[in-house]
Amino acid sequence: MSSTAKPTLLAIGSAFPPYELSQQEGYEGLFKRWYRDIPNAEQIMTQTRVQRRRMAWDPRVALASGSPGTGERMKVFAEVMVDVAGQSVGAVLESAERSRIGSFVMASCTGYLGPTPDLLLARRFALRSDLRRTFIGHMGCFAAFNALKVAMDSLAARPDELVLANCTESSSLHFRPEATAEQVVIHALFGDASVSVLLGNAPAGSGVQLLRTHTEQLYDTYELMTWTVKSDGFEMTLSPYVPFVLVEHIEAFVSKLLGPEKLSVRDIKYWGIHPGGPKIVEFISKKLGLEEAQLRATWHVLAEYGNCSSSTVLLVLEDILKQDQPRGGEYGVLMAFGPGLTMEGLLVRF
Amino acid sequence: MKRPQILSFVRQSILSINPDLSPDDISESSSLTQDLSFDSLRLEALIASLKEELCNLEFTPWYVRASRRGQDTIGSLVDFIQERQS
What we know:
The complex is a heterodimer. Chain A is α+β, with helices and mostly antiparallel strands. In chain A, 37% of the residues lie in helices and 27% in strands. Chain A is built from 11 helices and 13 strands. In chain A, strands 5-4-6-7-1-8-13-12-11 form a 9-stranded mixed sheet, sandwiched between helices. In chain A, strands 2-3 form a two-stranded antiparallel ribbon. In chain A, 53% of the residues are buried. By secondary structure, chain B is mainly alpha-helical. At the A-B interface, helix 8 of A face helix 2 and helix 3 of B.
């Protein structure tokens, strides 16, 4: 490995489950009935800025006559989402030297089965039998960073190997009919997706370089967002004060991410802020003084796919690469937030 | 600022942010989100107004308290500000 080589994104690919629902179709077909006693439910759903989402099942049909048990929901994950994950993995393996892939790390907080999906995918793509596998479960929307950090550590320990990382989420499999304003917001936001990345050590100019990460746990805020396994799916709780907490800590967080590289907010052209909800993006961008163009991909992903939990920030990165086409040497920051509250950030150089 | 002054300032801020409310709607036990229907934009305006008046006080401990159902009352907000000032 050259002394200038750094963990580098060599390929990225995404895939989506078969059902596509516009926000209006979802409202008219299911949520209007669930939330008939919630004032402004339709307005709340519109304000999320989500326009359409992909889903592993059609909730208008699957949830028409009740709330299926967790076992039934996980069965759909195994049948549908593992295949979707395979599509995104296949996309990044097309031109990869598979024998060099020494580690595979996968994150999901919405689908559990054993053997874990990474084993099934490694078998399907005939990856090495001595593959180091890690499955990251239940961490939530920021787990792409945990996957990337495992990958970066793997590349530090074994510099010549390649690492495959994947985030696959199906939040639609956890739609549950409690009628509260909090649940309207949650059910208006979340969608399904799978994103895979292939990483390896490479010199500048070979792809997006992962320069450094930063993590903060705001321990006293652990009650503000939860993800609880219930007998009929998983239940999320989300305090309306989450964006307010994050914005109060964002400047210090970004300073800790960028400071060691002697960079400031002004040096970063592209910002991929996990669109957990529109207020998080609005508050943070306002606090950091970001321009709307710097958040184009963030808003695009929220509108087109919704919040796809851990997959989301990788969808944003993929969209930045495809649509914005950053020039070599330009910097970007990816950030995501989730239960803890936990704040995760990654500085990249294109 | 003493507690009555803090309460008065919070009440005035709420009324200016939501002119549809009357002073009688606002008691110390009123929940901002549940009783006064404050959405995130109104909460943002209220917090911004308080921060401007109170030298950029950090509200995260109150957000934690306020996130428990029905606990984001005007009284709890006033108590918090008073605690932090003392």
